[in-house]
Design brief:
This protein has six helices and nine strands. The protein is an alpha/beta fold and 205 residues long.
């Protein structure tokens, strides 16, 4: 199986998590890594690139002007959420660029954070069209787990486009300004099917 592994966000413990991430994706699979993040010290980024060897990456500074403070959840960090969604958007664009240039077909596209530690391997189902596979649990704020998801490339393109749809979803009162809430609202917007699966993991920042 050929897997596109889309990583994004903080890389504080990337060295500690590397073996766990690769092993959990399945040692017999071919894994191509793509990454997007910002505000990363140069030395740390250099070490990350050496170890993870991403096919493509984007570490440019993130700048945005849209106001996501609509239907805001009190006490929630809007800036972190915006960067989270922008990084998902950017890393998927890297994948698209590579697929178009190299004419590669991936069996699975998976999006996940680098600071996740897996207690067991992910057993990938044969992906169905218009379907997103998301672990059970972590459905905060009445939404849907936004930490890990996989599917085919067309389904994941829709899933990773949350930032593009944030403003209309918020202005039309279809979501609260919260990552899990917006994740669910975006999935409903595209009428994607969701299949939950069991996976034991935790976040280690």
């Amino acid at each position: 199986m050929r897997i596109a592994l889309l990583l994004y966000g903080r890389i504080n413990k990337f060295k500690e998590h590397y073996h766990n991430i690769i092993t959990s994706m399945g040692k017999d699979n071919i894994i191509d890594i793509f990454y997007s993040g910002d505000n990363i010290p140069t030395e740390m980024m250099t070490e990350f690139l050496t170890l993870y060897n991403p096919v493509l990456y984007n570490s440019k500074k993130i700048e945005y002007s849209c106001n996501l403070g609509i239907n805001i959840v009190e006490g929630f960090n809007i800036d972190n959420m915006a960067r989270h969604f922008i990084n998902k958007n950017r890393v998927f664009k890297l994948l698209e660029e590579h697929v178009e240039k190299e004419n590669i077909i991936y069996d699975v596209i998976i999006s996940t954070r680098i600071d996740i530690v897996y207690d067991n391997n992910i057993i990938f189902s044969k992906v169905e069209e218009n379907t997103i596979y998301i672990p059970s649990g972590a459905d905060w704020c009445g939404g849907l787990n936004d930490q890990i998801a996989y599917g085919d490339i067309l389904s994941m393109k829709k899933y990773m486009s949350i930032y593009d749809n944030c403003i209309p979803l918020l202005k039309n009162n279809l979501s609260k300004s919260h990552p899990e809430s917006l994740t669910l609202a975006n999935i409903k917007l595209y009428n994607l099917n969701v299949i939950r699966f069991g996976l034991k993991y935790y976040i280690d920042r």
